[in-house]
Design brief:
The complex is a heterodimer. By secondary structure, chain A is α+β, with helices and mostly antiparallel strands. Chain A is 25% helix and 28% strand. Chain A has 7 helices and 17 strands. In chain A, strands 1, 2, 3, 10, 11, 12, 13, 14, 15, 16 and 17 form an 11-stranded mixed beta sheet that branches. A 6-stranded antiparallel beta barrel of chain A has the order 4-5-8-7-6-9. In chain A, strand 10 and strand 11 form a beta hairpin. Chain B is of the alpha+beta class. Chain B has 2 domains: 246 residues, Zn peptidases (Aminopeptidase), CATH 3.40.630.10; 83 residues, Peptidase M42, domain 2 (Elongation Factor Tu (Ef-tu), domain 3, Beta Barrel), CATH 2.40.30. In chain B, 23% of the residues lie in helices and 25% in strands. Chain B has 8 helices and 17 strands. An 8-stranded mixed beta sheet of chain B has the order 1-2-12-3-13-16-14-15. In chain B, strands 4-5-8-7-6-9 form a 6-stranded antiparallel beta barrel. In chain B, a hairpin with a 2-residue loop joins strand 4 and strand 5. Chain B is globular and about 65 Å long. Classes of the chains: A alpha+beta, B alpha+beta. At the A-B interface, strand 4, strand 5 and helix 4 of A face loops of B.
C-alpha cells in the first residue's frame, strides 16, 4: 500500500491538468467498480453497487489535483516567472524544485533585492538553466508541480501532494474492500479542489447524492509552535465538525462516530477555523446534500513535504469502509 | 482542426460599421443591473438573425440560432454587456449626490471626472477640491468615495437615489486605436453580434449577452441553464499593463500587451481553462497566422468562472481583447487587436467540432 501511495504522490497532476494521475487511478480501480466515466471538467466518477432498500446514494470525494505553478512570463535571460496554482506560501518555495509538464525541471528562487521580507509570488521565478527567452523550454501557460520524493519513516510517511493523494489512497483501498453494501457508492476523484473545490461542484450536481463525504487532510497541531487545533498525528481519523466552508451535517458526523465505535477505531473531532474541502461544494449541489469530511491529520500542509501517520491512514480506510458498508440514517 | 472542415476560411475584416456599432454601444449607459439600453441596441441588431430571443430574470439577453444539421454541437458564446459605474445613494442637497461604486473602480480614478447621471443622462462631475486650496498633506491622500460627491448643478428634482451614473467619456477613434468608457465589454458585445450574423450552419449558437459580470459573474451563473451548451467561449476585454517599468527593469507583470493579438486565457482567479480548447485556439492562430498571446495567469476572472461550473460542467475558453486603463474613464484598445480577436473567434466557430472534446482533458 505504501508503494501505491508512493506512485500516487509522485504522479503529475496540478489543478486543471489531472490527466496523468487520473489515468493511473482509473487503471487501479477499474476492476473493482461497476461503472466509470470522466466528466467535462476531468473528474473521475466511479460507481460501485446499486441502491438497495435501506441504502443511500453516497458520494465519496477525494481530490486528485495537487498544488503547482504556472509560467506567467519568460524574461530576457530565460528566467520563468510564475503564478501559483492553489494556496502556496512563498516561504516554502525557496530552493524548491519544480517540474513542468514537458519534463523541464528547475529551481525556485526570488528576486534577491527584495528578500528582506516575504516575497510576493510575482517576485518568484524558476531557473531552468536557460540563458535567454529563446532557449527557454518553458512557455507562458505551462504548468509544473513541486518535486519531492516519497519518504517512508515507518510509522509516518512524507511527500509532496499527500494533500490529497492520501485521500485518493483511502478512497481506492476502501473501494477495493467494500463487498456488499446497501448503498450506491460514487467514488469521485475530483479535479481543481486546490483552486476552489471546483470539480466537486459539477460532479455532485451530476450524481445528485443523498449524502457526501470528502476525504482530505487537515492541519495537525502537534508541531513546535503549531496551530491551536485538536487533531494530532497518530490518534486516529478526524471527524470534521466544521471548517470555513462547511458545518458538517449532524447525521453524517453520527454515521462516522457510530461506525468508529462499532469497530473500536480511535477518532478525533476536527474543528478547523479556516480552509475547506470538497464537502463545502457538495453540500450546495441542487437542493442541498448532507455532507461531512473524514480528515487525516497532516503536518506541513501545502508545503512540498507533508507528513501523515500510517496508523491514521489504515484506520481511515477501516472507518470509511465501515461507514459505507452499512445503512446510513440521515 | 479536423478532416471535415479543415479548409481555411476567408477571415472577415473589421468594418467601419462595426466600429460605428462599438461607438454606439460604448457611449450608451449600462451599469451592472441596469443593462436595459444596451439590451435594446443588441436586440435591434440581431432580430431577424436568430431563432429565439429571451431576456431572463437577471437581465441576460440570450439568443438561440439553430443549426441546419441533426444533433449539432451546442456552443455558448458569452459577452457581458454591463459596465462599471456608479449608483446614487443619497441626495445631500439639490444637485449634490453621494454615490457608491458599482464594480471595480479605483478610487484614485474618480475625482474630477465628468459623468452622466440618471435615466435622462444629465451631465455632472465628480467634484474635487481645487489644487489651489489643498494642502500638501491633503494632496497626498487618496480621496475615498465617501468624501466625493457627484455635482449635477441644481434643478434635479427628477433624479433620485438608486439611479445610476457612468463616466461621460465619448467614444473616439484615435489613429490605430479606439478609446471609450465601456470598451470593457461592449467590444465583446459588438463582436458577438457579428458572430451571430455569420454563424456557420453546423452549430447551434447560444449567444448570451450577460448582465452583472462586473459585480460577480451573476448573469453568467444562470445563463447556461436555458439551453445546456456542450462547450462555451467567453469574449471580453482585459487589462493590459504593458508600459515599461519606471526603473527600466523588465516588466514581468503586464497581464497582456497591446498589438500582440487576442489574449487567450490559461488560468485566472476563477477558472483553469480547458487546455483542449486552448490548444484548439492556439493552433488556429498558427494556421491562420493570427498573432496571439497567453494572458498571464493570476487573479481576475471572466464569465467563464461561472459558466464552466454550471450543471455537469462545461468545457470553457476565454479570449479577450487587450486594452489599457480598464475600469477608468477611458480605455484604449488597438483596432488591430480587436480585428484579430474577431478573426480568431470567426475561425473558432467555423472549425469547431465535437472531436476536440473527445480528447482526454
Amino acid at each position: 500500500m505504501k508503494n501505491l501511495l508512493n506512485t500516487l504522490t509522485q504522479t503529475f497532476g496540478p489543478s486543471g491538468y489531472e490527466k496523468e494521475i487520473r489515468n493511473f487511478i482509473q487503471k487501479e480501480i477499474e476492476p473493482f467498480v461497476d461503472e466509470i466515466h470522466i466528466d467535462a471538467l476531468g473528474n473521475l466518477i466511479a460507481r460501485k453497487g446499486v441502491q438497495k432498500e435501506d441504502g443511500k446514494r453516497i458520494m465519496i470525494s477525494a481530490h486528485m489535483d495537487e498544488l503547482g505553478v504556472m509560467a506567467s512570463h519568460i524574461d530576457k535571460d530565460g528566467f520563468v516567472y510564475i503564478a501559483f496554482i492553489g494556496g502556496i506560501n512563498p516561504l516554502t518555495c525557496f530552493g524548491s524544485r519544480v517540474k513542468f509538464m514537458n519534463g523541464t525541471e528547475g529551481v525556485v528562487y526570488a528576486e534577491t533585492k527584495k528578500m528582506n521580507k516575504i516575497p510576493d509570488v510575482t517576485q518568484l521565478f524558476v531557473d531552468v538553466g536557460a540563458s535567454s527567452k529563446d532557449n527557454c523550454p518553458v512557455k507562458v501557460g505551462d504548468v509544473g508541480v513541486f518535486v519531492r520524493p516519497f519518504l517512508d519513516l515507518e510509522s509516518r510517511v512524507v511527500s509532496k501532494a499527500l494533500d490529497d493523494r492520501i485521500g485518493c489512497l483511502i478512497a481506492i483501498e476502501t473501494l477495493k474492500s467494500i463487498k456488499d453494501s446497501p448503498n450506491e457508492l460514487y467514488f469521485v476523484f475530483t479535479v481543481q479542489e486546490e483552486v476552489g473545490v471546483r470539480g466537486a461542484v459539477t460532479s455532485a450536481y451530476a450524481i445528485d447524492p443523498d449524502m457526501g463525504i470528502a476525504v482530505d487532510v487537515t492541519i495537525a497541531s502537534d508541531v513546535p509552535g503549531g496551530e491551536q487545533l485538536n487533531p494530532v498525528l497518530g490518534k486516529g481519523p478526524c471527524v470534521k465538525v466544521k471548517d470555513s466552508m462547511l458545518i458538517s451535517h449532524s447525521m453524517v458526523i453520527k454515521a462516522m462516530t457510530d461506525a468508529a465505535d462499532r469497530k473500536e477505531i480511535p477518532y478525533q473531532m476536527e474543528v478547523l477555523r479556516f480552509a475547506g474541502t470538497d464537502a463545502g461544494a457538495i453540500q450546495f449541489a441542487r437542493s442541498g446534500v448532507p455532507s461531512g469530511c473524514l480528515s487525516v491529520a497532516c503536518r506541513y500542509v501545502h508545503s512540498p513535504s507533508e507528513m501523515v501517520d500510517w496508523d491514521d491512514v489504515e484506520n481511515s480506510i477501516r472507518l470509511l469502509t465501515e461507514i459505507l458498508d452499512k445503512p446510513v440514517i440521515l | 482542426m479536423n478532416n471535415t472542415n479543415d479548409q481555411l476560411i476567408d477571415l472577415p475584416v473589421l468594418t467601419d460599421e462595426m466600429i460605428g456599432l462599438l461607438e454606439t454601444l460604448s457611449n450608451i449607459a449600462g451599469v451592472s443591473g441596469n443593462e436595459i439600453a444596451v439590451r435594446s441596441i443588441i436586440r435591434d441588431s440581431i432580430t431577424g438573425f436568430v431563432d429565439e430571443l429571451h431576456t431572463d430574470a437577471l437581465g441576460n439577453l440570450i439568443a438561440l440560432k439553430k443549426a441546419k444539421v441533426e444533433k449539432p454541437l451546442k456552443v455558448l458564446i458569452a459577452a457581458h454587456m454591463d459596465e462599471v459605474g456608479f449608483m446614487l445613494v443619497e441626495k445631500e442637497s439639490d444637485g449634490i449626490f453621494r454615490f457608491k461604486v458599482i464594480g471595480g473602480i479605483d478610487e484614485r480614478a474618480l475625482a474630477g471626472k465628468p459623468v452622466q447621471v440618471g435615466k435622462k443622462q444629465k451631465p455632472g462631475v465628480i467634484g474635487a477640491c481645487p489644487v489651489h486650496l489643498s494642502t500638501r498633506e491633503e494632496r497626498e491622500r487618496i480621496l475615498s468615495v465617501d468624501t466625493l460627491r457627484i455635482d449635477t448643478g441644481p434643478g434635479t428634482s427628477e433624479i433620485q437615489p438608486g439611479e445610476y451614473a457612468t463616466f461621460a467619456t465619448k467614444f473616439i477613434r484615435m489613429g490605430q486605436s479606439v478609446c471609450g468608457k465601456a470598451l470593457d465589454n461592449r467590444i465583446g458585445v459588438a463582436t458577438l453580434i457579428e458572430l451571430i450574423k455569420n454563424c456557420p450552419e453546423n452549430i447551434e449558437l447560444i449567444a448570451a449577452f450577460t448582465a452583472q459580470e462586473e459585480i460577480g459573474l451573476r448573469g453568467a451563473t444562470v445563463a447556461p441553464f436555458r439551453y445546456d451548451p456542450d462547450v462555451a467561449f467567453v469574449i471580453d476585454c482585459t487589462p493590459a499593463n504593458d508600459q515599461p517599468a519606471w526603473d527600466q527593469s523588465e516588466n514581468t507583470h503586464y497581464k497582456t500587451k497591446l498589438n500582440q493579438g487576442p489574449a487567450i486565457y490559461a488560468s485566472d482567479g476563477r477558472t483553469m481553462y480547458d487546455h483542449r480548447l486552448i490548444r484548439y485556439l492556439t493552433s488556429l492562430c498558427e494556421n491562420y497566422a493570427i498573432p496571439y498571446q497567453i494572458r498571464q495567469p493570476g487573479p481576475g476572472g471572466t464569465d467563464a468562472g461561472a459558466i464552466h461550473l454550471s450543471k455537469n460542467g462545461i468545457p470553457t475558453a476565454s479570449v479577450s481583447v487587450p486594452g489599457r486603463y480598464a475600469h477608468t474613464a477611458a480605455m484604449i484598445v488597438r483596432i488591430a487587436d480587436w480585428e484579430k480577436h474577431f478573426q480568431l473567434m470567426t475561425a473558432a466557430l467555423a472549425h469547431l467540432h465535437a472531436d476536440i472534446l473527445k480528447a482526454d482533458r
